[in-house]
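Researcher: Next entry in the queue.
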Amino acid sequence: MRGRTRLWPLAAGLAATAALLVAACLRLPHFGGDRHPYGDRAVRTALLQRTANTVSSVNFDQRALDTLGEESILFAAVLGTVVLLRQTRDERRVAPQPAPVAPPLRRYGTLVLPVALLAGLYVIAHGQLSPGGGFQGGVVVATALHLLYIAVDYRALERIRPIGPYELADGVGEAAYVLLGAAGLLAGSAYLANTLPHGTFNTMASGGTVPLLNAAVGMEVASGIVVLLAHFLGQALEIVGEEGERT
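Model: Structure for this entry, 247 residues:
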């Protein structure tokens, strides 16, 4: 098929997509109006399921299957990075030399690290109650650990970041989300249906499966980001080729 001929199916597909988008936009509520059918339904469902944070109710209850896909994308990205950046036969690891760090930066980093770590864990644990959740808190936890690399040195980061346990935790977080979805099937409902007791509204135990799915995402995201950064840092700082140059 020639180049110009291949453009016709592409143009037809783009035209059909554009027509669907225009048709959808024509029926949207007017900006600034008081009619919000989707938002009203989401809030109503969140209250029925006793989940104070409507966004978490949408992510881990009303469209929990979509969130499984988003989590799986990150898991696949981590897996692909591990495979692509693995050490090859013609490469070896050389420990980098410690870099000098200004005393104010060292003090600031060591003071902020536990605060940032606690904040990330708080965001994960309270995802069904307040803004945040497993995705946001997981990123905060992972990046908080790397304050040691900035404020101290690479070796200090390595001591608290053994790759094996984090790779295991990444897989456990992904598997936990998948297996929690089976609770709905065991209860005779749909996969990932919120069938556990909903608890008392605005408490840590509220929301049924929402806090459990949120925690699974937090574990997977935090561990996945740590593994990603570990392989990129290792490639930049440790791995050298046969001629002794950084790869």
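Model: The longest strand covers residues 92-93.
Researcher: Noted, moving on.
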